[in-house]
Amino acid sequence: METVMRNMFLKLAKNRPANKLAKRYGLRFGAQRFVAGETIKHSIDAVKQLNASGRVVTLDHLGEFVFTEEEAKESATMCLLTLDAIHQAGVSANLSLKMTSLGLDISRELCMRNMRDILTRARSYGNFVRIDMEDYAHCQMSLDIYRELRQEFDNVGIVIQAYLYRTEQDIADLNELKANLRLVKGAYKESPKVAFPEKADVDNNFKHIIRQHLLNGNYAAIATHDETMIQYAKEIVREYGIPNDRFEFQMLYGICEDLQKKLVAEGYKVRVYVPYGNDWFGYFMRRLAERPANVWFVLKNMFK
């Protein structure tokens, strides 16, 4: 049953008519737990609250189903405005983005122009931008663009997914760039030809890449709510004397609040991934697909 529900939500995440319907009705039925709001002001208010509790943030203006240059430009403009708002508010936050929302599926050149504009603005503020990894079809082109951007910018990082067979080699290849990586398990539905189908294998590979990247000496953003993985990372940094300023834990807005606060109290850096915007449906569906407990939360809200 869990697999059926997961597959259903992942399919809905890519459903454009459902996304348009969700935009019309706004954040309802529990989505506001995982999405800070629809405006930049909402996102900055959320950042201020998280900063006050000792947590830092990465903001993501949600955008999916970008099919025209105009839509890609609008998305890039929102990224620029988000960086402006972070700077003006003086809050502790950086930016995450998806390159498909910047026109990657329209043309590589369009995406590169938008990326350079965003990274230049971020650099002027002393800020950092993280490229979110998307589905496997975009993996190689995302890494290629990241490599090209790193020739010009040192304020950009990318995400690596543990469920892909290729990940160990990707981390080895990126070591020459001293890449700042966010390490995740992976949230898209992929073929067993390219990704581990069994959770146990994904978990084992996640541990492996945490160790691999930390021992390479590069900055690691360990993004997980799995306490077993968090404990494993703690053991690695203790065993090898890795200082706390060389890594951070990352978690999603609205998930595992108590664990986030506990890690802060223990002296670890915790960054919360805070999405906002009216194009929230695909993101929300993937959160439901990840954890059945999220579904029950939504159902309870629907019956209230």
From TrEMBL:
Domain Proline dehydrogenase per the UniProt entry, residue ranges: 45-298
Swiss-Prot/TrEMBL catalytic activity: L-proline + a quinone = (S)-1-pyrroline-5-carboxylate + a quinol + H(+)
Coiled-coil ranges per UniProt: none
SUPFAM superfamilies: FAD-linked oxidoreductase (SSF51730)
Leading EC class: oxidoreductase
Pathway(s) of this molecule: Amino-acid degradation; L-proline degradation into L-glutamate; L-glutamate from L-proline: step 1/2
CC cofactor: FAD
EC number from the UniProt entry: 1.5.5.2
Top-level taxonomic group: Bacteria
Keyword annotations: FAD, Flavoprotein, Nucleotide-binding, Oxidoreductase, Proline metabolism
Pfam families the record matches: Pro_dh (PF01619)
Name of this protein: proline dehydrogenase
